[in-house]
Structure to design on (426 residues):
């Protein structure tokens, strides 16, 4: 294993500032492998307990309140981002982040199994609200994991390797998504909620297994920071750091690459079996992550700014091409292969945005302010996601999916233009 890790490090680190000591190089390679493995497990758990798919179907089949079901996605997405500026005080007070990360994965696993208990033992309406409450707890724990993960990768993996580490982690997540997609296709003839309950159960244990895996990381210590850097003081970064503000605005515009995905799915009319059709879309997403993320990661280590600009441009061009096809050849969308192909291309580009923005914020910051940068940007994006989600949801009642794809693609184009003004940080 050490020989394989050393070979990977030497072949991948052309842009990295590596220490001369073989012992230190081995530690860097080992830490990168631990981070990839832990992320694979947590992303697998995320896919299995996806509120857009698994939890929604589970609660619908039980007769849960529509109000409870409608809260699943907003709570899951915004809850994992909004509190980060406040949780950063806790993170900064610790010399190592791995303990907090383990707390987060333990709580996520417990919350998933608590959902399972609610579904198994409570009636539909009560179970729905208990699942929502458990998901809120899970989202807060996920928020803590997201915050501490970036701090750990910043301390444990040098510049020039962070993009590839994030890329391989996302690729592993793509493999997990492929597994989930195949499961969805295989269980399409099953009756009842049992297959979905098994997915939630496996998700809970995957989070607990990630708790064990991340314990193997050799995280360097840092000087704990006093708690005088409070929430409102931390938010002043948006006013005092113009480069950081431009990055947050560009990232806000690029959230359109995530928000546009459901509207591609709405164009899919070529499958008589909805579950099989969704499995094809999910499989397309997983294969895209598996293929694209390592490639975007290597480019991000050279220039994360260029990665953001290029991938955002691809999202906008794909959206305009899709709208053009829909206007000129609407009948082609009745074929079974077109929308999965378009979705595959969208995910290829979206992975570039994910890897690029993660690498950019980690490389832009230092060990002293990395938690602040990550927490403030994520809190701001959580709020913006919530607002844009409400707006796009309201517009979806008035406008067809193709029009919304066009509007969100224009936002991606604006993000690409603004991204060009960002300085290189590598």
């Amino acid at each position: 294993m050490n020989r394989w890790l050393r070979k990977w490090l030497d072949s991948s680190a052309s842009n990295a500032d590596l220490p001369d000591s073989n012992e230190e190089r081995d530690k860097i390679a080992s830490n990168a492998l631990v981070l990839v493995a832990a992320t694979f497990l947590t992303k697998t758990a995320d896919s299995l307990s996806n509120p857009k798919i698994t939890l929604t179907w589970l609660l619908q089949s039980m007769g849960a309140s529509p109000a409870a079901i409608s809260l699943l996605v907003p709570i899951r997405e915004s809850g994992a981002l909004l509190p980060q500026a406040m949780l950063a005080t806790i993170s900064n007070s610790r010399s190592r982040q791995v303990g907090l990360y383990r707390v987060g994965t333990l709580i996520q696993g417990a919350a998933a199994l608590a959902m399972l208990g609610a579904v198994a033992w409570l009636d539909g309406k009560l179970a729905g609200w208990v699942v929502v409450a458990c998901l809120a707890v899970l989202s807060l724990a996920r928020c803590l994991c997201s915050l501490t993960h970036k701090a750990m990768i910043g301390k444990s993996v040098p510049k020039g390797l962070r993009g590839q580490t994030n890329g391989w982690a996302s690729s592993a997540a793509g493999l997990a998504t492929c597994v989930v997609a195949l499961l969805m296709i295989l269980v399409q003839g099953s009756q009842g909620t049992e297959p979905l309950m098994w997915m939630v159960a496996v998700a809970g244990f995957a989070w607990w297994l990630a708790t064990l895996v991340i314990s193997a990381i050799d995280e360097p210590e840092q000087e704990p920071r006093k708690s005088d850097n409070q929430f409102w003081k931390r938010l002043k970064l948006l006013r005092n750091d113009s480069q950081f503000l431009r990055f947050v605005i560009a990232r806000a515009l690029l959230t359109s690459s995530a928000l546009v995905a459901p509207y591609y799915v709405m164009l899919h009319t070529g499958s008589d079996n909805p579950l099989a059709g969704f499995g094809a879309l999910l499989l397309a997403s997983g294969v895209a992550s598996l293929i694209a993320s390592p490639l975007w990661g290597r480019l991000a280590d050279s220039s994360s700014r260029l990665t953001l600009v290029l991938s955002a441009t691809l999202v906008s061009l794909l959206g305009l091409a899709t709208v053009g096809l829909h206007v000129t050849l609407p009948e082609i969308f009745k074929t079974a292969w077109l929308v999965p192909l378009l979705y595959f291309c969208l995910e290829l580009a979206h992975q570039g945005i994910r890897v690029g923005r993660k690498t950019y914020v980690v490389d832009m910051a230092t060990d002293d302010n990395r938690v602040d940068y990550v927490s403030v940007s994520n809190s701001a994006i959580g709020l913006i996601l919530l607002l844009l989600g409400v707006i796009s949801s309201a517009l979806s009642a008035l406008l067809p999916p193709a029009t919304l794809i066009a509007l969100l693609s224009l936002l991606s184009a604006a993000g690409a233009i603004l991204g060009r003004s960002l300085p290189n940080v590598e």
Notes: The chain has a mean pLDDT of 78.
